[in-house]
Specification:
TIM Barrel, 8-stranded parallel β-barrel, about 20% strand
């Protein structure tokens, strides 16, 4: 029998060889750690469906941010819970809101972290939808005015990047205009450009207390069956001034991440969302999987698909694991 000249296994023989020829190299500098800011002081409440993830008051947010920076994760994204909710999500733009106070506390502590803020109304509205409601419908244009106000309040508090996640049409342009008019032209926009109406958000809605009180979000978040539409959404957001675009969720939409990466020469982010995290945690706690291997494989797959930025609740663990490799 004549053996082939080409033997791919030659370069798989040892870890040193595998590392030398590895195509996708996972690193901490593309990780973003999501956090949930709530009102009060010395509040730290674990989310029952997300082990190790907490709703925290600004003073506790700062303490965990010290840990985040200490393991080498370069950025956090903050989600907010209000003192009270109303029909239009008034507290989203409050200068004394939990997100705004957390940003200020991080800045005061002089932590070497990029601060990204989620810009949406669902956590702040009494009905749980991402915009203003009239006759049971989510109104687009009145909603984007409120979103722009919220983004401006985050910029004033010291955010580096604002990230609209509502999926209202035209919100990137409205936010960009509002920031520029108020001399925050250096604040970047990370747009949730292709955000799907997904069943993978369940644990997040417990963490953010943002479950819709009626109906669902199918009229504004994307249909999971559509991939070409994602390219249109990304193109529109880039035209409106987005600096970074994101696909959410990550794992069920790796094909979409790959299509976006191939079509657009801009930074691409992906959100490894709450249920993706919780399923791994549950299986690991039952001894069914090797958590470290599974998580690193998931992160590698998301990056291999084309995302250079990964938002994930595993970020701190991934940073530690990579450091020990």
């Amino acid at each position: 029998m004549t053996f082939p000249v080409h033997r791919p296994r030659r370069l798989r023989r040892t870890e040193a060889l595998r590392g030398l020829v590895r195509e996708t190299r996972l690193a901490t500098n593309g990780l973003v750690y999501p956090m949930f800011a709530c009102p009060g002081n010395k509040v730290r409440t674990e989310v029952s469906s997300m082990p190790g993830v907490f709703q925290q008051s600004p003073d506790q947010i700062v303490e965990e941010c010290r840990e985040v920076a200490g393991v080498g994760v370069p950025a956090v994204i903050l989600f907010g819970l209000p003192e009270k909710k109303d029909e239009t999500g008034t507290e989203a733009a409050s200068p004394t809101g939990a997100v705004q106070r957390s940003i200020e506390a991080i800045r005061k502590a002089k932590l070497d972290l990029l601060v990204i803020t989620d810009v949406c109304l669902c956590e702040y509205t009494s009905h749980g939808h991402c915009g203003v409601i009239e006759d049971g419908e989510v109104l687009n244009d009145p909603s984007i005015a409120l979103l722009a106000d919220a983004a401006l309040s985050h910029a004033r508090a010291g955010a580096d990047i604002v990230a609209p996640s509502d999926m209202m049409d035209g919100r990137v342009a409205a936010i960009r205009r509002k920031l520029d008019e108020n001399k925050f032209s250096d604040v970047a926009i990370l747009s949730y450009a292709a955000k799907y109406c997904s069943a993978f958000y369940g644990p997040f809605r417990e963490a953010a207390q943002s479950t819709p009180q009626f109906g669902d979000r199918r009229s504004y978040q994307m249909d999971p069956a559509n991939a070409r539409e994602a390219l249109r959404e990304v193109a529109l957001d880039l035209e409106e001034g987005a600096d970074i675009i994101m696909v959410k969720p990550a794992l069920p939409y790796l094909d979409v991440i790959a299509r976006v990466r191939e079509r657009f020469d801009v930074p691409v982010a992906a959100y490894n969302v709450s249920a993706e995290f919780s399923m791994v945690k549950a299986a690991a706690r039952n001894g069914w999987i090797d958590e470290q291997r599974i998580v690193l494989e998931i992160m590698t797959s998301i990056q291999r698909a084309g995302a250079s930025i990964i938002l994930t609740y595993h970020a701190k663990d991934v940073a530690r694991w990579l450091k020990s490799c």
